[in-house]
Give the backbone structure.
Amino acid sequence: MSSGRCAACRYLRRKCTQGCILSPYFPSNNPQRFVSVHRIYGASNVTKLLQLLPTHLRAEAADSLYFEAQCRLEDPVYGCVGLIFMLQQHINAVESQLVKTQAEIAVMKSQGQNRETQQAEPDFNNLLLRQSDNEAPLSFPNQVSSGFI
Amino acid sequence: MGGNSPCASCKLLRRRCAKDCIFAPYFPSDDPHKFAMVHKVFGASNVSKMLQELPVQQRADAVSSLVYEANARVRDPVYGCVGAISYLQNQVSQLQMQLAMAQAEIVCIQMQPAPQISLDQMVDDKSSFLHNHHFNFASSSLSTNVNICDSLNRDNIFGDIIS
């Protein structure tokens, strides 16, 4: 049935048998898929690789081979390794940003705690000394001098 | 290198290693495993075609990435490098989520009003502070202490200020 050939057999100009290992994963309606994979891996390597896998894993394998082949065609020097490198750099950048942000939070929280402590307990020793020194009326440094009154 | 000893690829392919062998600079004879992996996954002729299409200065990097991909595919015949890519993408998503949460926390902290303590509470705190702490004042200063306690009465201090 020449009209029922899979993309692989059509490209390779051979008869597509009922037991063709490539036909489930390289349908005739997507010839580009097989062309990409064939250019990078070769039909025989793909066939060998799929034959070594259990049937239920072959679809995933074919998809990942196609993905890697496309990456290699787009970037003949680095292929999908370029993508891995980019992701690793991205992770490093986000990690250092996260560390910085967490440090900022720690500083802001400790500043907030210090402010609470200062407002709750003014310097009484200072108050007592000032009172005994010059008998000036008591004042509350934080509130009075800051214009609270 | 061609001539004396064949490169790893020509050794594996059992052929004469020419002087201009395209594989020789990148697959030395002391590391046969490297070419074996690449040949198993991509095939020698495909690798040769790929290298021929690249300028010479980029071929070393291309070989390194092909070796990396081949090793990944041999270790994981189903997903190859795609497994690593998927894992890294998950890591990126998780880190970005953590960063977003940390940034939201900063905004919340910045929006919090400064802690307000009521005047009554301030006066009460001062009274209890003085009563709870045992100061070593000389007897002459006792009266000062008493004056301070009296002065802490908010009417004396704030007078007309507090309505």
Q: What stands out?
A: The longest helix of chain A spans residues 80-120. The two ends of chain A are 99 Å apart (CA to CA). Chain A touches chain B through 57 residues (CB under 8 Å). Chain A has a mean pLDDT of 84.
